[in-house]
Amino acid sequence: MNSRKANTMGLMDGFKGEVKQQFIARPDGSKDLVLYKWPETNIRMLSVVTVQPDEWAYFIKQGQVAGYLQGGQHKLDGAQIPFLGGLIDSFTGGNVLMAELYFISSREFANNKFGGSMGEVEDPGTGEVVRCGVYGEFVYKVVDPGKLILNLLGTQTISSNDFIIDAIKDQLTKILRATVNGKMKAEKWSLLDITDGTYTLDFEKAIVATAIEYLEPFGLQITRIEDFLVNMDDADRQRLLDIKDRMAKMRLAGDPRYMAAAQTEAMFGAAEGMKQGGDGVGMAGLFVGAGIGQAVAGGIQSGQVQQQASQAAQAEQAAVAAAAAPVAPAAAATMTCPNCGKTIPADAKFCPECGFGLGAKKCSNCGADVPPGSKFCPECGTKQE
Predict the structure, then answer these.
(1) What is the pLDDT of residues 103-148, one digit of tens each?
(2) Residue 122: which of 193, 185, 199, 196 has the closest Cα?
(3) What is the largest distance, in Å, between two alpha-carbon atoms of the chain?
(4) How far is it, in rounded angstroms, from Cα 270 to Cα 304?
(5) Are 179 and 222 in contact (CB under 8 A)?
(6) Strand ranges inside 262-368, DSSP E
(7) SS3 label, residue 241
(8) Closest to 25 in 3D by CA, of 69, 62, 82, 84
(9) Which of 59, 112, 118 is nearest to 86 (CA)?
(10) pLDDT tens digits, residue range 64-114?
(11) Burial 34-62 (b: 16+ CB within 10 A, else e)
(12) What secondary structure, in 3-state letters, does 356-374 show?
């Protein structure tokens, strides 16, 4: 018993006699990390902690934030830093602090790609349903290190920023579809305009504003969205253009202003034709074209002009309606599947018989399959040549 007591007293005397200072700082190799955890939980009192101007040093004990230090050099002296009193290990005679120490960067981290499918989206202009994808980059920073450590990191030890970036991407997945669909329906924006980049800035601002609520529990904030893009397949784009063109012609055919112009033009044409039959008839026809022919030419001649004008207008309306009518599709072209030999549609992306991929290429960045005609990789968002 006496021997054990002597050993314990010797250990305590060793801690009490430790007067050398310990210098603590984030290593140079971890400068690009959002968060760096100091490997030791036994920290000597009077150690000097160096905190860079763009970071904080947070002390965590038993799942709670004990306190933090801002940029500068700090000597761990309980008289100067009051919260250290709650970290002192009494077993060592007050010479050691027991805590986890984290260095968290306060600067922005850019060039983080995101992207993926939004699924089927209804175009407000035509009512058509089109599959769309969204891509871009986001810039983020830490605004509350305590929440980041306690609510997101927990007991995990991370050696890169991927864990934090993936957490932000998970939230973006929820934000993007709701934001894009919401803005489209509220503002009646056409998918054609959206995919042309007309409303890019509006979407970027809306996503940043919405992300505040989603990321606040994790102490993170998206500060900017860059190079935002909503895209769709070229075939779907052409389909929407064709439908939009036909709808425009149909609206034009039913526009009373258009019909009035067509009738006036037809009356002038009829009057010009009657002019060739004689001076009296010609003058009457001209007055008919001006809308006062009945008072000059008499009932019979005016009736003839009006009948011809009505027929011309009806013919014009029929021509416009015919142009707006959908064109019957040509017989679908076919091809032979190189894998199973079955006859399949020529524009198929995958064989309906065996599922063999037709025309898919590999992403130059991550190697994932990229559907034909896609401008960006559906996995990593890299632009395809």
Answers:
(1) 999 999 999 999 988 889 999 888 899 999 999 999 999 999 999 9
(2) 185
(3) 142
(4) 9
(5) no
(6) 334-336, 343-345, 361-362
(7) helix
(8) 69
(9) 59
(10) 999 999 999 999 998 899 999 999 987 777 789 999 999 999 999 999 999
(11) bbbbbeeeebbbebebebbeebbbbbbbe
(12) CECCCEECCCCCCEECCCC
Q: How far apart are CA 235 and CA 346, in angstroms?
A: 14
Instruction: Classify residue 27 as left (phi > 0), alpha (psi -120 to 50) or beta.
Output: beta
DSSP-based three-state secondary structure for 19: coil
Q: What angle do CA 100, 104, 105 make, to 5 degrees?
A: 165
CATH class in words for 109-236: alpha beta
pLDDT tens string 29-60: 999 999 999 999 999 999 999 999 999 999 99
* Separation CA 210–CA 120 (nearest Å): 22
How are beta strands 23-25 and 48-51 bridged, if at all? parallel
Packing angle, helices 299-324 and 279-289, rounded to 10: 50
| CA 201 and chain centroid, separation | 11
SS3 content of the chain, % helix, strand, coil (to 5): 45, 25, 30
pLDDT tens digit string along 231-241?
A: 999 999 999 99
Give strand pairing partners of 97. 43, 88
Which residue shows structure tokens 């009948």? 307
pLDDT, tens digit, 9 for 90 and up, residues 316-370: 566 545 555 555 555 667 878 777 888 888 777 777 787 666 666 677 787 777 7
- C-beta contacts of 266-269 below 8 A and 24+ residues apart: 266/308, 266/309, 266/310, 266/311, 266/312, 266/313, 266/316, 267/305, 267/306, 267/308, 267/309, 269/312
Task: Report the distance separating Cα 384 and Cα 231, nearest Å.
Answer: 13
**pLDDT top residue among 79 and 18:** 79
Integer Cα distance of 221 and 140 in angstroms = 6
| Dist CA 121 CA 128 (whole Å) | 8
The structure tokens listed for 40 are: 């030791």
Question: How many other CB atoms are found less than 10 A from the CB of residue 213?
Answer: 10
Q: Which of 57, 231, 243, 85 is nearest to 146 (CA)?
A: 57
For CATH 3.30.479.30, list the domain ranges present in the chain: 109-236
